[in-house]
């Protein structure tokens, strides 16, 4: 019989040892589906609130460093716009009709006026959306990923970003999945095949250094923030 605790420890160790692709020069933070439908539903665990709080810290640092922030939100004009599996099975996407309060972005991570919001109808933020054009307009070469769910919409967007040879940094503490085991294995899968799984602390340090700019130190940026 498989010892799943041992399996999780193994993939965590392998994830830490896996070669990193590395960050880009022009990152953008992508916030995936942190909407009320996916952050306030009946099956969320305590990790959701923690991930939202961590993401708010990251967003504050990104904006201070002039790093673009892009929200991906699922908004449907008709439930038939969903992919077949979601039309056949019960899904939280049933709450994502345009105008439904469930589609609203969580008040813990509200968009700032300069942020970008991209609507989507499936898991990936790239499928039939304006995300490709927006990234080209912004000159982005790296996606710093946050959001929910790690094994669903985050992973789908990461895979499509990797197909475009974008650098990908998945901030572990800023991703949430109420399917705990699926989230854990997806972090390993993304690190192994598609991008890098990084920590919140190292990402905050990167953004602080970016905010400091030439001739200033990271400590200077913290004082003036």
TrEMBL record:
Coiled coil: none annotated. Keywords: Hydrolase. Residues 28-201 form the Isochorismatase-like domain. InterPro entries: Isochorismatase-like_dom, Isochorismatase-like_hydrls, Isochorismatase-like_sf. The keyword Ribosomal protein does not apply. PANTHER family: ISOCHORISMATASE HYDROLASE, PEROXYUREIDOACRYLATE/UREIDOACRYLATE AMIDOHYDROLASE-RELATED. This is Isochorismatase family protein. Gene3D superfamilies: Isochorismatase-like (3.40.50.850). Transmembrane segments: none annotated.
